[in-house]
Amino acid sequence: MPLLDPIPSPVEHADYAALEWEPLLALVANFAASPVGCNAIRDLRPAADQARITHQHQITGELHRRQLSFTPAN
Fold first, then answer.
1. What share of the chain is helix, strand, coil (3-state, %, to 5)?
2. pLDDT, tens digit, for every residue of 30-49?
3. Under a CB-based contact definition with an 8 Å cutoff, are residues 61 and 55 in contact?
4. Residue 22: helix, strand or coil by DSSP?
5. What H or E segment, with its residue span, contains residue 60?
6. Distance between CA 62 and CA 67 in Å, rounded?
7. What single DSSP character describes residue 4?
């Protein structure tokens, strides 16, 4: 069972080299907490589904805001 939902409308004819896609995924995968998460990140592909892109950007923005407002206990 895949860790992430399938990507709707994946970009089929992308120049992954121009996007520097593989180096980007390798960089982000280094931050994964587990091998399963690392593999899930490396399996990501660009998508053309605007609704999904918008939703993913909202999630990322929320996580970023939460991270900025996080105050660790002393």
1. 55, 5, 40
2. 999 999 999 999 998 888 88
3. no
4. helix
5. helix 50-69
6. 9
7. S
